[in-house]
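hi! just following up on the protien thing from before. the input was this:
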Amino acid sequence: QVQLVESGGGLVQAGGSLRLSCAASGGTFSTYAMGWFRQAPGKEREFVATINWNGGRTYYADSVKGRFTISRDNAKNTVYVQMNTLKPEDTAVYYCAASRSAYATQKVGGYDYWGQGTQVTVSS
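and the predicted 3d structure came back as:
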């Protein structure tokens, strides 16, 4: 069973930066595509960013493109998202997810394992 544990969330002022980390255990991390999603109160979970198994391909939601960068370190079984120029509308619980498919997808249903989430709050 794959376990994912996110960290790095917190409270930041608008314009600030945070880096979220997601550590994986119990599976073959280097073969999984990884994704970040977020969910704000009263809203559906939405795609943020995804990266394929070797980091060669990345995709971003239009709302974060140019501000967020997803990356992975297969030697450390960890995926990251660097979030810059944060806005109040980025406030949400951020979830890490792993897909047994090696290829990145933006669909919630394309992921097999999920972390517990980490809160990001951006104040104006």
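The chain has a mean pLDDT of 96.
The two ends are 40 Å apart (CA to CA).
cheers
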